[in-house]
Design a protein that fits this description.
The protein is an alpha+beta fold. It has four helices and seven strands, in the order E-H-H-E-E-E-H-E-H-E-E. Strands 1-2-3-4-5-7-6 form a seven-stranded mixed β-sheet, with helices on both faces. Coenzyme A is lined by residues 30, 83-85, 90-96, 116, 118, 122-125, 127-128, 131.
């Protein structure tokens, strides 16, 4: 069992090669090779967007990762590019805790909306997002390739 008392949600401010490697490997393991970002993109999102981690404790293992950018044409809107919990920590309430923490960071930063795209067949994530108030704003057909359709979900912060 995990001791949830010491769980830490933190934004990455500084990074080194080792941290980038850890995230890169978590990406591949949890999202697969096609979707995962790598050492060419992770530093860019840290510097120009935001990466938030959920960790077992201050210096502990990373249990989940969230990568975000802001919308160029509407600075009140953030977009969650990826959000995942490492496989061995799923179904323990950590995803929900993490998403609540992320929403609080966005509110602190005075964002007004957060959006994300989701595979309509992803029951786990759909159910978590809906539970926290996200709604389906539109369907984006062929968003990431032919027949790769996605729901665009939105939450008013
Ligand atoms: C989606 C994800 C982040 C959920 O993380 P988690 O830590 O397992 O979620 P939690 O244990 O906090 O569960 C929160 C809620 O999510 C839903 N949920 C989680 N896993 C589920 C599953 N396998 N089936 C159905 N609902 C599920 C439930 O509504 C649950 O609430 P409940 O237990 O009170 O019913 C995790 O499954 C994941 O990383 N998936 C792969 C990456 C991904 O799909 N990311 C989202 C892309 S948009």
């Amino acid at each position: 069992m995990i001791d949830t008392k010491n769980i830490v949600i933190e934004e990455i401010k500084d990074f080194d090669h080792k941290l980038v490697e850890v995230i890169k490997n978590l990406e591949k393991k949890n999202l697969g090779r096609e979707v995962s970002i790598n050492e060419w993109v992770i530093p860019v999102i840290i510097r120009y967007g935001k990466i938030i981690l959920i960790k077992k404790n201050k210096n502990g293992e990373i249990m989940g990762v969230c990568e975000m950018v802001k919308k160029w044409s509407d600075r009140d809107t953030a977009f969650i590019h990826s959000f995942y919990i490492n496989k061995e920590y799923r179904r323990l309430g950590i995803g929900k805790k993490f998403l609540i923490g992320i929403i609080n960071i966005l509110k602190r930063d005075k964002l007004k909306y957060v959006e994300l795209t989701i595979d309509p067949g992803n029951r786990a994530a759909c159910s978590l997002y809906k539970r926290l108030g996200f709604t389906v704003k539109e369907v984006r057909n062929n968003e990431y390739g032919k027949d790769v359709n996605r729901y665009l979900m939105i939450l008013k912060l």
